[in-house]
TrEMBL record:
Organism superkingdom: Eukaryota
Primary site of residence: membrane
Keyword annotations: Membrane, Transmembrane, Transmembrane helix
Protein's recorded name: R3H domain-containing protein
Transmembrane segments: 274-296
Subcellular location: Membrane
Family (UniProt): Belongs to the ROH1 family.
Residue numbers spanned by region Disordered: 21-47, 195-236
Pfam families per UniProt: ROH1-like (PF05633)
Organism expressing this protein natively: Oryza barthii
CC per GO annotation: membrane
Membrane topology per record: Single-pass membrane protein
Annotated signal sequence range: none
Length: 425
């Protein structure tokens, strides 16, 4: 997946990150005068205040993600399309503020000095692994679009018709669409999320994997560039994938989260606190990518990766752990264990499809009043989820694309800084 120039698109969030840091410096009161000592070491430096502001704002963003509709009517449901978009917004803001801090403090804390150089390269290695996840998530969203087409056929067959016209032909057409949908979703589970994946990339057309710095990204093309197969579901199979056939979202998550260790006190002191910001960004990156894989169909998706112990002394630690635990609890619910994804809308697809198939099974026509009432209720939910998918999938995909570009841009900027001759050593 080739890198692209996303500087213009990144400008609004970059400005937000920098203006936020300036705003927080203005809001944090200066330390009281020390009448017993003139030493500046007794008071936090400006870099300490900026890094503390970063930690606290990350905590605020994570707290917002934990809000529910009971306490905040405007809060979207956990793992819904709207919530997932908010999750990505929070990540993008954290990443931009992280970049702003790094380069704002680079003069006083050169990024190329140990141990900061080692910590940054470790973070960038984890960040690169998130790029393949972005590709796989793009494929998963494309798959949900295919599901929505079948939902729309069923909704069109049932929703517009008055009860008197909701006859055998309409029921049969809806059942056929829902049967095809069920087959596609079952194929996806059996194939580990491979069905429906496309040779699509967030980069420019005609570029290859080699155009990425250091060869990162899995952009594969087949010689024919077409699709193969016929019959139910096979028209979705492609000869090329955004990730290889053996690629695993579960293993990728384990690689992102594995070895994420708390920086030593000496490292934090030696880097003017930047080591703690690098660690915070790494932990946020892991939980965000883990939550996205939990929500959206991915190739060989799995939630086996664990969040290593995070010290509660960090302001963001509590909400990050709570968020991880809540999503894990959702994955263990009986009706969610074998789902293609924990996205609320996927659960609605499965539930209303199953309900419609059960209600219309061996139905006699014309439908009895009670049966027609059940069909109408299930159809209304079907129409609602169709609308949610129509409105939410494209914006979410744009945010996943933006996440990809921001990660690439951050990595490129940091590597460029580290490679400058005057920063060597």
């Amino acid at each position: 997946m080739p890198a692209t120039d996303s500087s213009s698109a990144a400008a609004p969030l970059t400005s937000f990150g920098r203006s936020f840091l300036s705003h927080r410096r203005d809001q944090i009161p200066p330390p009281p005068p020390d009448h017993h000592s003139h030493s500046h070491t007794q008071h936090p430096s400006s870099s300490d205040l900026e890094i503390d502001a970063f930690h606290r704002h990350a905590a605020d963003l994570l707290h917002d993600l934990l809000s529910d509709s009971n306490s905040d009517p405007s809060a979207p449901d956990l793992l819904s399309l709207a919530w997932t978009r908010r999750l990505l917004d929070s990540f993008l803001i954290c990443l931009e503020e992280f970049r702003a801090i790094l380069f704002a403090l680079a003069d006083s804390q050169p990024l190329s000095r140990p141990p900061l150089d080692r910590l940054l390269l470790d973070f960038l290695d984890r960040a690169v692994k998130a790029l393949d996840l972005c590709n796989a998530l793009r494929d998963g969203l494309d798959l949900i679009r295919q599901w929505r087409k079948h939902l729309a056929i069923a909704a069109a067959a049932l929703a517009p018709a008055p009860a008197a016209q909701r006859g055998e032909a309409q029921i049969r057409r809806a059942r056929k669409a829902l049967t095809d949908l069920t087959i596609l979703m079952l194929d996806d589970k059996d194939a580990g999320g491979v069905v429906g994946q496309r040779n699509r990339s967030f980069g420019r057309a005609g570029t290859t994997r080699d155009s990425l710095p250091h060869g990162h990204g899995h952009h594969r093309r087949s010689s024919s560039g077409g699709s193969s197969g016929s019959g139910s579901g096979s028209h979705l199979r492609s000869l090329s994938w955004s990730v290889s056939r053996t690629w695993s979202a579960a293993r990728q998550l384990q690689a992102i989260g594995g070895g994420l260790t708390v920086p030593r006190a000496n490292d934090i002191a030696a880097t003017g606190g930047l080591a703690s910001a690098v660690y915070a960004m790494g932990a946020v990156l892991f939980v965000v990518t883990w939550a996205l894989v939990a929500a959206i169909p991915c190739q060989d998706r799995g939630l086996q990766a664990h969040l290593t112990a995070v010290p509660r002394t960090f302001p963001w630690a509590g909400p990050l752990i709570t968020l991880f635990d809540r999503i894990l609890d959702e994955s263990k619910k009986k009706d969610r264990k074998h789902s293609c994804g924990l996205l609320k809308e996927i659960h609605q697809i499965e539930r209303c499809s199953r309900q419609l198939m059960e209600v219309t099974d061996a139905a006699e026509f014309p439908l009895a009043d009670d049966k027609d009432s059940e069909v109408q209720e299930a159809t209304q939910e079907l129409v609602q989820v169709c609308g949610s998918l129509k409105d939410g999938l494209d914006p979410l995909e744009r945010q996943v694309r933006e996440m990809f570009h921001r990660v690439v841009r951050t990595r490129t900027e940091i590597l460029d800084y580290l490679s400058r001759p005057h920063n060597a050593g």
